[in-house]
Write a structure and sequence with these properties.
- The protein is mainly alpha-helical and about 180 residues long.
- It folds into two domains: about 120 residues, no CATH class; about 40 residues.
- The protein has nine helices and two strands, in the order ααβαααααβαα.
- Strands 1-2 form a two-stranded parallel ribbon.
- The mean pLDDT is about 85.
Length: about 180
């Protein structure tokens, strides 16, 4: 599809939303947006294909208070409210995103939601293979470098080893 100019690199949301792309690799956090903007009731979700090992990453659960925050007590109160089970449940049910708390998944309301929307159960099935992204400043840039190497190898049908070796050298520089 890439060679035939049907698929562009990292086109993502816009091509999928416009009906140009038949699929997109994305986070559970976008499900509600897809349904709202596309007025689509028949979106399907499947786990990523896997070889010997399955892996995915988690994201979106990062909350922080800056050291320069003038009212850390108020900030902590807000983040405690935002991260509470009740608010997390409301957020998950409203957006379709995976809850960040196991206790939310166990609630009757969320169990009922999974019956009404089987996509939620599919998304939860990926948690067994989920890993937390490193919480370090260099992560974003390192992830971008590696993703570009993988995309180049896949879409240009080239040997991944030299591309990944080059990406590794670039990423290693980030940590010196």
């Amino acid at each position: 599809m890439y060679d035939a100019k049907i698929l562009t690199l990292s086109s993502g949301w816009s091509d999928f939303e416009a009906g140009i792309a038949a699929m997109e690799l994305s986070s559970s956090a976008v499900l509600g947006g897809y349904r709202e903007s596309m007025e689509a009731k028949n979106i399907g979700i499947v786990p990523l294909p896997r070889g010997k090992v399955s892996a995915t990453v988690t994201g979106g659960g990062n909350l922080a208070i800056f050291t320069t925050c003038p009212d850390k007590k108020a900030a902590w109160a807000f983040l405690s409210w935002l991260g509470s089970a009740e608010i997390n449940k409301r957020w998950a049910l409203a957006t379709g995103a995976i809850p960040t708390r196991k206790s939310v998944i166990a609630t009757g309301e969320y169990q009922d939601y999974m019956i009404r929307d089987p996509l939620a159960k599919t998304m939860l099935s990926t948690l067994d293979a989920a890993m937390v992204r490193p919480n370090i400043v260099q992560y974003g840039e390192a992830s971008r470098i590696l993703a570009q190497a993988v995309e180049e190898s896949v879409f240009k049908n080239t040997d991944p080893k030299p591309l990944l070796n080059k990406a590794k050298a670039e990423v290693d520089k980030l940590f010196k």
